[in-house]
Amino acid sequence: MQKDIKKGLGQLKGAAGNVRAGTPLLAADGTPIEIPNREISIVHAIVLLSEMYHAVDWKAVAKEIVEVTENHRSETMFHVMDLSELKSIAARCRDGEHFSNRLLQRWCRIKERGTAYIRMITLPDEVLEALGDSEDGTPS
User: pTM here?
Assistant: First the structure.
């Protein structure tokens, strides 16, 4: 699994470079994929796993994610997560900017904690309001 993650990060480095370079991007059926503000927006590159296996050295994965993100020539945030985590994050986001912010928060927690074995906990809106926080986690 560790080797597959490293390979995925390598492939995503090339893909992120293509996004920044303005290379035409196409779907499998040949349809052009448009990315608004692709020259200036943060690119989130995600290695998607079927499951976050306990046997993986998640500290080494975190180190790799942080290194590749901080050393990449474009503003790209690299992530490793499973489908369940991606679904959980995306389900509570109202738009692309909110989703981008959630991914950025997750990446910061990985760097801070030194492990990529992280689950984001999104509290219900009622709880956030009671705590005096907005939905995106910033104080209101």
Answer: 0.80
